[in-house]
Design goal:
There is one protein chain. The protein is an alpha/beta fold. It has 5 helices and 5 strands. The protein has a 5-stranded parallel β-sheet with strand order 2-1-3-4-5, sandwiched between helices.
């Protein structure tokens, strides 16, 4: 079995909450994430994602855009950390210069769109936790 298949097998049961305000990004990335994780729930902004999370706290991973209307990804991460301090959080940004955000809020910051190489990196990080 290839390393990629082993990684996928190790993380496929993790439940992911994915948040982005752009419809095309939500749809495309949602389909992409489902190639790696069996359960992916998609939200259109931080407020909707927080409400979803409060209803079902069984999420393992939050992948969120940073800049969104209503509630941005940073405020969402702060609220989720209050409820679930050990949640694995990935920030996504479309800005050219990726900067590391507060390590207490996110485990990883990646540039949009997610690539296959990004997902290999993410799966390795998640695999170390399981």
């Amino acid at each position: 079995m290839s390393d990629t298949k082993l990684l996928k097998e190790k993380v496929k049961d993790l439940k992911v909450l994915f948040v982005d305000d752009e419809l095309d990004v939500r749809n495309g990335t949602g389909v992409f994430l489902r190639k790696f994780f069996d359960e992916v729930v998609v939200s259109s902004d931080g407020k909707e994602a927080l409400d979803t999370f409060k209803e079902d706290k069984n999420f393992d991973v939050l992948i969120t855009d940073i800049l969104m209307p209503v509630m941005d990804g940073i405020d969402l991460a702060k609220e989720i950390r209050k409820i679930s301090p050990n949640m694995f959080i990935i920030f996504l940004t479309a800005s050219r210069g990726i900067k590391d955000y507060d390590k207490e809020l996110s485990n990883i910051t990646l540039k949009k769109p997610l690539s296959f190489e990004d997902m290999i990196f993410v799966m390795k990080q998640l695999g170390e936790l399981s």
